[in-house]
Amino acid sequence: MTPREASQASLEFGGPLGVTVMLVLLPATMFHLLLVVRSGPARLLGPPTYLPGLEELWSPQALLLLFIWLGLQVALYLLPARKVAEGLELKDKSRLRYPINGNSIYDFFLGRELNPRLGSFDFKYFCELRPGLIGWVFINLALLIQEAELRGSPSLAMWLVNAFQLLYVGDALWYEESVLTTMDIIHDGFGFMLAFGDLAWVPFTYSLQAQFLLYHPQPLGLPMALLICLIKVIGYYIFRGANSQKNTFRKNPSDPSVAGLETIPTATGRQLLVSGWWGMVRHPNYLGDLIMALAWSLPCGVSHLLPYFYVLYFTALLVHREARDEQQCLRKYGHAWQEYCKRVPYRIIPYVY
Ligand SMILES: NC(=O)C1=CN([C@@H]2O[C@H](COP(=O)(O)OP(=O)(O)OC[C@H]3O[C@@H](n4cnc5c(N)ncnc54)[C@H](OP(=O)(O)O)[C@@H]3O)[C@@H](O)[C@H]2O)C=CC1
Ligand SMILES: CC(C)CCC[C@@H](C)[C@H]1CC=C2C3=C(CC[C@@]21C)[C@@]1(C)CC[C@H](O)C[C@@H]1CC3
């Protein structure tokens, strides 16, 4: 393999061609969803019933509001009382770098800079958890209030969607430190994907169910609501159990809650869990997350596909993410990872995938 072929082979997301498609497709998809969700037919796959003029897309008040929101989040991020946690150590094996312009679009998408910082202000870490994720909760809340104004009180479906997603965001903030070990922080640069993903995609497409309910009220009886709550609780139990088990094990393998679990040693000195949640499938946390995603959409009924967009998108994202993580773990742990895959053959769903 020539050095050029080798560098092409290690490109992710389909290389320059794949990311060019994503650069156009992602914002277009987001606008499409925002337009169809408020239209009468609310068809995920049909064209929007109207296209707004440019003057409708521009509002000085909205821009001001955005800057106020970002400013507030920056101020909160900089609060001196916050705990300081250490990230993973970087191995500085520097080499001379030469610009390869044919790859610039790929770099624009994935980002060249791993940890862009201004002093101690970390742009990627800040964007991952704060303005978009918390913004999503506020958008949901605004939709709930708007529904109350429109129909006298918020619907049961709207309450459920708000409560479920608030729990998800609250959980992410409560376990904030664990974001430091995600591939977004360790591996991906801060490019279009994460900047657009964190700041636009998350607040505007993750709130799609609440947007849908405002424009298309859905009746929801108590028995069905209880069943949906049960699905959410099961999803959250798996998601939190799996994430906490791994995080506790990585921090302190002799912690009594994980000390009894079976492990595989690796050449790096780290071990891989092979029993408990991580012995069930190779990504139990993704399984729990997907079950929760279903519980967020079910309150919207089954008359439309649109509220299930998140489930479809998220399945694709997690299948792709799982494949990327496998590659990275294979590079990191080699034979031990192959042994783990043999012992735990299913990736996300037991006996299915
Ligand atoms: N809502 C959303 O849009 C999204 C949500 N998520 C959620 O975020 C959370 C974090 O996900 P993500 O960063 O993808 O990855 P994970 O938290 O699943 O971490 C993967 C890493 O865990 C370690 N690991 C894997 N298998 C084992 C094992 N058997 N024993 C011990 N360690 C193991 C490896 O790293 P190492 O060995 O170096 O510790 C691996 O690289 C998940 O709950 C996911 O569902 C993720 C993406 C999007
Ligand atoms: C726009 C693209 C199609 C993809 C963008 C992906 C991003 C939206 C996601 C990549 C990883 C994420 C994580 C989270 C939110 C979504 C993004 C930023 C969490 C913070 C969600 C809450 C979880 O508890 C932790 C997640 C870490 C990864």
Give a structural overview.
By secondary structure, this protein is mostly helical. The chain has one domain (64-101, 113-343). It has 15 helices and four strands. The strands form two sheets. The protein has a two-stranded antiparallel sheet. Helix 2 (15-36) crosses helix 5 (104-110), helix 6 packs parallel to helix 10 (192-205) and helix 13 packs antiparallel against helix 14. NADPH dihydro-nicotinamide-adenine-dinucleotide phosphate is lined by residues 182-183, 239, 243, 246, 250, 270, 272-273, 278, 283, 285-286, 289, 321, 325, 328-329, 340.
What is the SS-derived class? mainly alpha
Strand content: under 5%
Distance between the termini: 32 Å
Unreliable parts = 1-6
What number of structural domains do the residues give?
1
**For the largest beta sheet, what order do the strands appear in spatially?**
1-2
Number of DSSP helices?
15
**Major pleated sheet:** 2 strands, antiparallel
Percent helix? 55-70%
Task: Please give the radius of gyration in angstroms.
Answer: 22 Å
pLDDT average, as an integer?
90
Q: H/E series, N to C?
A: HHHHHEEHHHHHHHEEHHH
InterPro entries: ERG24_DHCR-like, Sterol_reductase_CS
Protein name: Delta(14)-sterol reductase TM7SF2
Subcellular location: Endoplasmic reticulum membrane; Membrane; Microsome membrane
Membrane topology: Multi-pass membrane protein
Task: List strands and helices in order, with pairings.
Layout: H1 3-9, H2 15-36, H3 54-57, H4 60-77, H5 104-110, E1 117-118, E2 121-122, H6 123-129, H7 131-151, H8 156-174, H9 183-186, H10 192-205, H11 208-215, H12 222-251, E3 263-265, E4 271-273, H13 284-297, H14 309-333, H15 335-343
Antiparallel strand pairs: 1-2, 3-4
Helix pairs in contact: 2-5, 2-10, 6-7, 6-10, 7-8, 7-10, 7-11, 8-11, 8-12, 8-13, 12-13, 13-14, 14-15
The protein binds NADPH dihydro-nicotinamide-adenine-dinucleotide phosphate (NDP) and the ligand CC(C)CCC[C@@H](C)[C@H]1CC=C2C3=C(CC[C@@]21C)[C@@]1(C)CC[C@H](O)C[C@@H]1CC3.
The site of the ligand CC(C)CCC[C@@H](C)[C@H]1CC=C2C3=C(CC[C@@]21C)[C@@]1(C)CC[C@H](O)C[C@@H]1CC3 has 15 residues, from α6, α8 and α10.
